[in-house]
Specification:
The protein is mainly α and 224 residues long. It has one domain. It is built from eight helices and no strands. Helix 1 packs across helix 7 and helix 3 runs antiparallel to helix 4.
Length: 224
């Protein structure tokens, strides 16, 4: 039974790996407000998905594996807080490259730019916080997922015509689901004994505030 629980907690950690969060959010945006993506024709939307997947998951993942192969980190799970700086920097480089390709592209929905910038802010905040405490990166990811979905829901509520797949009830259900996922991930990290309660809550906090900071400052910084 104990082995089965451990496998379940590890599966939760894999499914909600922080490197997957931006990709999940892009998928949700295409479902919640498909009108944001009307400028994409044919395979262009697929290429956008591919670009996001490459920049936020595949390339950072390859970089982490290479760092492990070179002996610069002792585990790809980044359990040692002292070894996290190189993977953080490598991941930030790929996220910044993605952001640079999106920020002034008129066909890209603003919320996607907000989400990517929020992920970058979360990374840099995590770098600083990690100097003092080994925060949970998984909880940062699901905290960011929850906060971003709340912002997306707010933007969706301002639409003139919301006669799409989502309505008020399904949107509320999605937010509740994000809360449940955040709790599930936090519990999994605690049960696996890779984080303390303080580290889990710190991850949640950084994850929640990062998209909010992005949403409230992005116009001033890049479009002002």
């Amino acid at each position: 039974m104990e082995n089965a629980n451990r496998i379940l907690h590890q599966l939760v950690s894999i499914v909600f790996n922080p490197l997957l969060i931006v990709f999940y959010l892009l998928f949700l945006m295409t479902v919640i407000n498909p009108f944001d993506f009307v400028g994409f024709e044919g395979t262009q939307k697929h290429m956008l998905f591919f670009q996001v997947l490459i920049s936020t998951l595949i390339l950072p993942g390859i970089a982490i594996i290479m760092l492990y192969s070179l002996g610069l980190i002792s585990s790809v799970e980044l359990g040692d807080s002292k070894e996290r700086m190189f993977p953080f920097i490598a991941t930030a480089i790929f996220y910044l490259w993605l952001f640079a390709n999106l920020v002034y592209n008129p066909t890209i929905p603003k919320m996607l730019i907000v989400v990517v910038f929020g992920a970058i802010l979360g990374l840099f905040i995590a770098m600083v916080v990690n100097l003092f405490i080994k925060l949970s990166i998984h909880c940062l990811g699901v905290g960011s997922l929850f906060s971003s979905v709340v912002i997306i829901a707010y933007e969706w509520s301002l639409l003139f015509d919301r006669n799409v797949a989502f309505n008020e009830n399904t949107m509320a259900l999605l937010i509740v689901l994000c809360i449940l996922v955040a709790g599930l991930v936090g519990s999994a990290r605690l049960q696996l004994k890779v984080h303390t309660l303080k580290e889990v809550y710190t991850g949640y906090f950084v994850g929640i505030i990062s998209p909010v900071l992005s949403y409230t400052t992005i116009d001033l910084i890049f479009y002002g």
